[in-house]
Amino acid sequence: MKKLNFALIGCGRISKNHIEALKNNQDLATLVAVCDLKIEKAQVAKELYQQDIKVYTDYEEMLNKETLDVVAIATESGNHCTITVKSLQAGCHVIVEKPMALSTQDAQLMIDTAQTHNKKLCVCHQNRFNPPIQHLRTALEKERFGKLVNVTARILWNRNEAYYAQAEWRGTYQHDGGTLMNQCIHNIDLLQWMAGGELDTVYAQTD
Description:
By secondary structure, the protein is of the alpha/beta class. It has helices spanning 15-23, 39-49, 59-65, 80-89, 104-116, 131-141, 161-165, 179-182, 185-195, and strands at 4-9, 29-35, 54-56, 70-73, 93-97, 121-124.
């Protein structure tokens, strides 16, 4: 089986998880390049991988120069659509961090582009793999709860000021999207995954 050549775009807080996953699966994949607007962050990512890989500050230059199979995108959410579309057009499969995009129009464009270029597009919802969630999913598949008539999700953790101070894009509607898009998206995904089926109605309040 051919090993897949990976590139990582966005070397901030979450990037270490992508790097760790690639280090643990070197029989299947190789990280060949990392990219971040701030070169010092890209250099840190390179050091974490502990191998000689290329470092870029321009992802389009990287797409043009490197022979890539998969691109992992861990940038601020507001740039997911543009980078995903260009990566797909460059002939790469894409793994993009949640939220997939900040509008349904952008999400649909990403899906359409993947289909046009016959490439895989995957959205990273890592909470599906948490042990308690896996146990719940197994119980549901075994129909231990009978017929579902109501499903509720609550988020009881918070993000303090230190979290938002980590990056200037956090807490902005343009690139963060707000708590519903950035934090609650986990539970929205789990609700749909557990309950199954297509959404019929969406209702929301904000203040």
